[in-house]
Amino acid sequence: MGKSIVLVEDLVSAHKVGQVTTCMPLFGVQVQTVHYHVLLNDKGPVILWLDDDQKGRSIMHKAMGIQAVLNRPVTALTTTKDPKLLSLNEIKEIIQ
Question: What is the pTM of this model?
């Protein structure tokens, strides 16, 4: 698996991205306690990948909150297409 751990909104996207790197579904856009338990035990970089409707201040605010808890950088990104609709090569390019 890849070195990053990616957080996505839904289970199908998590399955798709999980073929490229470690991935967890949020089942929405909020990071819950259970996610933090996993993230705190993993020391790799974190990528918060949400749908395009979350871009701007919303995703940056969420990323900064995660970063404050984990005490390590969190990359925030949005795409017009859900991760589940992208090819594995497109996913690799986006998360590199």
Answer: 0.93
